[in-house]
């Protein structure tokens, strides 16, 4: 019985993980910001329910638009990044323009329609 429970638990965890935006290291992402493309950072933690909601929405967007620079920064594992990004609450979304300037910041869950608007407004969508 324990083996069946463990196997089904691992399946659920792996299924859940596939629907979430993959974690990025902030040090890697920071070295790329400001080099000609806009960046969207989702700052949160895997254990945060609102972060999970955002992660699922952003996963779908990233799957549809793999060229978008969308990154999940897990502050539960990298607490220093929260300090460097001046994040006080999670989830926090931060958008940087092509030159590396912060142009948008939000705390909380963004509706899908607002995300679509932001990606168009800040140059993620190439027409």
Number of helices: 5
CATH topology: Glutaredoxin
- The count of strands amounts to 4
When the domains are counted, the total is 1
Strand order of the largest sheet: 2-1-3-4
The CATH superfamily is: Glutaredoxin
Question: DSSP strand (E) fraction?
Answer: 15-25%
Shape: globular
Name of the CATH architecture: 3-Layer(aba) Sandwich
Order of helices and strands: HHEHEHEEH
Q: Residue-averaged pLDDT, rounded?
A: 88
Structural class determined from secondary elements: alpha+beta
**Biggest pleated-sheet summary:** 4 strands, mixed
CATH class: Alpha Beta
Q: Unreliable runs, pLDDT <50, ≥5 residues?
A: 5-16
State the end-to-end CA separation. Answer: 55 Å
In helices, the fraction of residues equals 40-55%
Task: Give the radius of gyration.
Answer: 16 Å
What does the model show?
The protein is an alpha+beta fold and 127 residues long. It has one domain (21-121): Glutaredoxin, CATH 3.40.30. Helix content is 43%, strand content 17%. The chain has five helices and four strands. It has helices at residues 2-18, 26-30, 49-64, 79-84, 112-121; strands at residues 39-44, 70-74, 92-96, 102-107. Strands 2-1-3-4 form a four-stranded mixed beta sheet. β3 (92-96) and β4 form a beta hairpin. The radius of gyration is 16 Å and the shape is globular. The N and C termini lie far apart (55 Å).
